[in-house]
Amino acid sequence: MPTMPPEGGSRRGRPNDPERRDRIIDACLEVIARVGVAGTSHRKVAAQAKVPLGAMTYYFAGMSDLLQASFTRFATTISDRFERRMATVDSEDAARAAVVAIIVADVFPDNRELVLSHELYTLAARDPAYRSITSAWMRRSRAALERHFDPETARMLDALIEGLTIHRALDAEARDPQEVEEAVARITARPGSATRR
User: Fold this and answer.
1) Stated pTM of the model
2) Taking 70 as the threshold, does the pLDDT of residue 55 lie above it?
3) Helix residue spans in the chain (DSSP H)
């Protein structure tokens, strides 16, 4: 009776690089950022990760399995950063500034993340498996925002962040940070209070 390879080992039973699976996932994200999901293949990812092509099927059942693992890592990374920003503030004013920083400092300058976000959105629009990734991402974002804002305001802020992400990806003109501050101030203004300009 054949024996199974040890966990983290190869089919031949020799020890593998224990970080190989992680490298493949990271490489997959780099390939997607460069050529899109449609242009991503096992061969391109293996070359980017500097692993044998045969290693791909050892770690992942197929391309869909690899894409789901890669986009889950991407969404988790963004959510972790989002939560860290919101966890470090201790007032509503500081929370507003943190939301602006998420948009202006984290989202706008990083074209790689913009491309990956939109590739994930496209998959999620068609496939429930990817929609579960985006749904979990949105739940975490809203939970982080709800530390400082009521649920309805948190939902509107989350929609603002996503909407401005789309605008940033499609618009050739740079977004004025002052405009972002104004939008956040309007959404978070208490009834009857004037927004800051």
Assistant:
1) 0.83
2) yes
3) 20-35, 42-49, 55-59, 63-87, 92-101, 111-126, 128-145, 151-170, 177-188
